[in-house]
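If you are new to this repository, start here. Below is one unmodified record pulled from the training split, so you can see the exact layout before writing a loader.
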Amino acid sequence: MSDKIYKKYLPIIVCLLQLMGLFLLRQLWLRTVFQTVATYLLLCTAGVSFLLLSQMKKTPIWRQLWDCCLIFWSGIHSVIVLGLMTCGTFYLTWTQVTFVQIVNLFLGCALYWFLFLLFRRPDRAVGTGNLLIGIIGTVNFYLVKFRGSPFRLADIQSIRTAGNVVKSYDFKPGILLLLSLMDLGIWYWAWRKYYLCTAAESRTPNGKNTWLNPVSILATVFIAVGCAALPVIKYDKIYADTVQFSDDTYLAGLLAEIMGSEKGLPDDYSVENVRQAIASFQSDSGFQNAAQASPRPNIVVIMNESFGDLTIFDALNASEDPTPFLHSMEENTIKGWMYSSVTGGGTVDIEFEYLTGFTSLFQPPHTVAYQLYVEEGMPSLAALAGSQGYATTAFHPYKSSGWNRVIAYDYLDFDRQMYEEDVPSPHIIRSYISDKSDYEMIYRSTQAEDTSFFFNVTMQNHSGYAQGWYHLPRHIQLPNNLKAADQTAEQFLDLMKESDLALEELITYYSQCEEPTLVVFFGDHQPPLSNAFYEELYGKKLSERTTEEVMQQYAVPFFIWANYDIEERQDVVISPNFLGVLTAQTAGLPLTGYMEFLADLYEVMPAITPVGFVTADGRFLKKSELSQEQKDWLWKYEVLNYCGMVDLFDEARPMFCMD
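And here is the target side for that same chain:
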């Protein structure tokens, strides 16, 4: 009797509760959108219909058909839950379904169907699939919380770096994560009961399992054909729509990474094309130009961790300006916005772009150049400065084990490296060495060396922002709507205030030094605050932003200041791959042929990033919107970028290096 009750009522009740739970999550924690509500109602109706029809007495073929549909529904359900765990949202709408969203749903169905073929038991397939989705979703939940982006395949190479900072994060689970995991567990439990109650009906009189039947064979063929078609899909089609991860494209984004990992030579790449590019841009005038810039200044480069000026958003409305000194800088200053290639994380990508002039636009998605591409003798700004007699130092006041820095800095031709153990009696803010103590190390170095090129990656402002307030005064308050969207945002803004005070001390110190000094300062990326916080700043969902608005989240302040007279410029637009060239030009260093090419390219597109481009006339465009002339420049850049980063043969070396 109990089996009949389970068979007749339990799956229906569980499915209703499960989908109502998803719907309530969407209503209680997230913005309400009519199209999203309609989507969930359709999904709920489909799920309940599948289970209702499965209880009816029907021919074996109908039984097989509806069991097959339930497997596919489990895949769709897992994609929804994964979107909720990763982003807290699922914005798929039936009026604007994109190709990538279809790919995402297909991958969820394919996963569960392959598991079914492997185990020959639907309950085991659903249980294993839900376990995998639960693990991935949990990892994504915390990664998005801590750094603003979910798990990527390249993160496997960065486990040691993650271990360095994991102690500073708060792993409190949160209601959304717990309810999503509960939902996955309930769905498996319902499947288990359903299968045990209907298993006898799924067997023929001779005892053979009827899960291997014409319907299953057709479904397998459908999945197999779809998977076979995926490799022939143009890589750029998927990557362009998943470079910004979202709730309804995550699995497609992982597919783009796998496809992109095999991304090889640029189109029409050849040694002859490289030779033609070299002939167009190689010049021997660099040494002559540099000789006129005497005496040579010290060059202090500070890439400040997570230094983001959120006043770029009109809706910030903080109780006070977090960075008043930065905003006041005008004399002997070149100043503006640098459009980073990353947001919320990816510090090492910006290091690499600044020091080399190569761009992550042409790398496989989410790869780390320090771990994959840096080789001995790679051209860099440090190598250029060293060739002109500079003592070159790289300093990061944290652990040396992160991002393969020790080897990478050596290959990029730094004479000396310093890490947290080299800082005597540091002042700590929260868990990290403060900018104040960091800059004191720079003072000592430039005092001890005749001509110094000092590259510094700070640590004070590293996420997360719920670590406590040790040595961090509370000053800045946000409006209630922003505070409710992300309770850690105020700590970030107070860190910006501390950085601004340390920056004022730095500039004051060098303004009193007689030795000429050039200070280059920029943030690596904006902080990993919640999507809800940024949606409050924009006043709209992130999925509704224009290209210009998307790139606004990638904008960080930069300036070049000197304690001697230089041409002053305001509102300069640049990206990190060009900033090294601007540094060399301002300091009077010679330019390699490759740097001359970048200087010419800058006049056409002053900002080049994986998420968009800024053109000379101030337009914000996607790659598909570029003119043919701009695409031709970009192709030349890709050819030279690949040559210098991967295929630096002897004949091309003078184009990139001064040695």
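Two things worth knowing about this chain: The chain has a mean pLDDT of 77. The chain has two domains: 2-260, 271-656.
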